[in-house]
Amino acid sequence: MLDIGSFRARNCGGLSRRSFLRLGASAPVALGLSGLGSEVLAAEAGRAKSVILLWLWGAPSHLDTFDPKPKAPAEYRGPFSPIATRTPGVQFSELMPRMAQQSDRFSLIRSNVSSDGGHPGAGTVGLTGFKEFPEPVQPNFGSIVSKSRGHRGKLPPFFYVGRGIPRDLPRRIKGYGGGTLGKTSDPFLVSCSDVGRVEIPALKLLDGLTPNRVTDRKSLLSQLDGVPVALDNAGFADWDRTYQLAYGLLTTPSSRKAFDLTEESPTTRASYGQTTFGQSCLLARRLVENHVPYIQVNWSEYVEAMSPGCDFGWDTHIYNFELLQDRHCPIFDRAFTALLDDLDQRGLLDETLVVAMGEFGRTPRINKRASRDHWPRCYFSIWAGAGVEPGRVIGASDKFGEDPTTGPIPPLMVGTTITELAGVDTAKRAEMKVLDGGRVIDELF
Q: Which of 15-24, 114-123, 187-196 has the lowest mean pLDDT?
């Protein structure tokens, strides 16, 4: 373990050769290293120029997707059959046929664990590495990356793509944004419909204003100047930031074009699927092309799958098997593989980290409503691009899918790995006072 002041940093298995060289480049004088460590770090650090986190809000069932248990009793295994993948000896659920055929392009972790079993709390843990209490709330992984990279160009460095900040019916998660880094590190919210229509909620203050309608800088400035500050409940400082970001977005033609999905070919748009999540993934790829450091694509705003006014999250306490079969899994299976294909074909996958995960798993034992409930003790995550070694399965769960039989991987390790790949190394994390005690998931590399 390395101590930098009160900051603790670890890796997965002590100090590996790879991590030693990375550490040495950060502190060559202290360790007495030659220039070799610096050269290795220069070649590896910041491999991920952009990060796309696909946040599967509501918590997918691991047994019905990427960790099937065909030999378990009926009350555990569910109705879906396992299918072979391109990774020898590894099976997925039959609901993920496209991903099964591309399993050699990403790595799967089957031993993620969370310390919280409720949605908002687990959402904060999953996106920050720490619980909501005791306060202060720690920053979102995207806030850490964007703060480190800084604001370059006209586009904000951290985007949420979705209807709103993830929440359940009572409240939203606390760890959605800047936390201890401040509100200037909060994400900038955009939404994308199933037909690819992009909306920027910050601009709804300006009646009828959309990215494609703005061509005259002076006219826009006049409109913005005429908006009463009182419309922003968060106060003048936050409105001023929104003003600046919105103005920057809309007054630069290249920035406006990033949100125009009609520039994509019908074939490309169709490959992602005519769904909100599919088109949001396409928008994320366009933001990567515009050098945005961190994009979080939220599956839904609400966790609930079947509540009035909600948007079909993964919280399938009822109709789990029906929803997974008819809606959730086909949408995700198609959009994820299309995103990898698209990034790869454009030469962007090697410099873009793609991670897909929810806040926890679902009960291995099927409940009395023929569905599954919350299960923080074991779940999955998927990793691709930016130096991640593809085709690996990391960790394993027991015969019922209840607990890991290998070392558990908590969200703090997830966040440390994401930020490390994005160039926020041990020294930078210590300086920012974030991800205290985190270590990298070495098995991914």
A: 15-24
* CB within 8 Å of 122: residues ≥ 6 apart: 59, 114, 116, 359, 360, 376
> What is the mean pLDDT of the segment spanning 80-106?
98
Domain boundaries, the chain: 2-200+259-444
* Span 309-319, pLDDT tens digits: 788 999 999 99
pLDDT at 28: 33
Residue in the structure block whose two tokens are 């603790």: 8
Cβ-based burial of 73 (10 A; exposed 0-12, middle 13-18, buried ≥19): exposed
Burial of 29 (0-12, 13-18, 19+ CB in 10 A): exposed
Three-state helix/strand/coil letters over 194-227: CCCCEECHHHHHCCCCCHHHCCCHHHHHHHHHCC
Q: Compute the distance between CA of residue 152 and CA of residue 141 in angstroms, rounded to an integer.
A: 18
Is the predicted pLDDT of residue 15 greater than 50, yes or no? no
Supply φ then ψ for residue 347, to 5 degrees: 70, 25
Rounded (5°) CA angle 352-353-358: 140
With a CB cutoff of 8 Å and minimum separation 6, the contacts of 366 are: 75, 76, 78, 372
Residues 6+ apart with CB under 8 A from 326: none
Residue the block writes with tokens 């926890």: 360
Beta bridge partners of 83: 92
**pLDDT tens-digit series, residues 279-322:** 999 999 999 999 999 999 999 999 999 887 788 999 999 999 99
CATH architecture of the region 2-200+259-444 = 3-Layer(aba) Sandwich (3.40)
Between 380 and 246, the higher pLDDT residue: 380
Tokens of 419: 């930020």
